[in-house]
Design a protein that fits this description.
6 helices; alpha/beta; five-stranded parallel beta sheet; two-stranded antiparallel ribbon
């Protein structure tokens, strides 16, 4: 059975265009595969612990190949528990609006917690980083108020949004990535119509994914 982790990075609930776009895609995916296992992770409803000194010390000990003391072991166990939920999924659906040219801080916080050595990546001094999440797929539902592909930059914003998410996923070993975009959402002459078109694209992408992987 395929497991999909739906990461919700917008706090706007039903008013969020990124969530609407992602849910449209997910609905079409589920329609073709009712047995799809979906795990919804709302970052605004989740208790994300601070990535504090104990967790950093535990991380550095992992990198150095050293053991943990009792405090560090407890901190690393907490990290592993959070990361396992992400690692156990086969597919990822991330609904993320653009905030200040980048991603919402709750999503960055989550990434900082789970993107750890021995869990999502390995490192070799000669060859560099190696992603540990092989054979997985991600779909990004991306929205922004002003920025759009092809818009004059930086006057209308800079995309540290999709680029950051793609670079992070690539470093973790996820290279099969698709994007759904509704950009811009504030400057378009027909917001409702353009969002409807974006949702049509979401349905089409879901159907293409099902055709590409029967039984998904």
């Amino acid at each position: 059975m395929t497991k999909l982790l739906f990461v919700v990075a917008s706090p706007r609930k039903a008013d969020s265009a990124s969530i609407q776009l992602a849910e449209t895609y997910l609905g079409a995916l589920r329609a073709s595969n009712p047995s799809l296992e979906v795990d919804v992770l709302d970052l605004w409803e989740s208790d994300l612990p601070a990535f504090d000194g104990d967790k950093v010390a535990a991380k550095m000990n992992v990198i150095a190949g050293e053991g943990h003391n009792e405090v560090q072991r407890s901190a690393w166990d907490q990290i592993e528990g959070i990361a396992h939920r992400f690692m156990s999924a086969d597919r990822y659906l991330i609904a993320a609006p653009m905030w200040n040219n980048g991603i919402p801080y709750r999503l960055k916080h989550y990434i900082d917690l789970i993107h750890q050595p021995g869990l999502l990546w390995g490192f070799d001094p000669q060859s560099g980083y190696t992603g540990l999440l092989a054979g997985k797929h991600a779909t990004l539902a991306l929205t922004s108020g002003v920025y759009a592909l092809g818009a004059c930059s930086p006057a209308f914003g800079v995309d540290h949004h999709s680029t950051y998410l793609r670079d992070w996923l690539n470093q973790a070993g996820v290279t099969a990535i698709d994007e759904l975009r509704f950009q811009p959402s504030l400057l378009t002459e027909d917001p409702a119509g353009d969002l409807a078109k974006a949702k049509e694209g979401a349905v089409a992408l879901a159907r293409a994914h099902v055709c590409g992987r029967p039984g998904l």
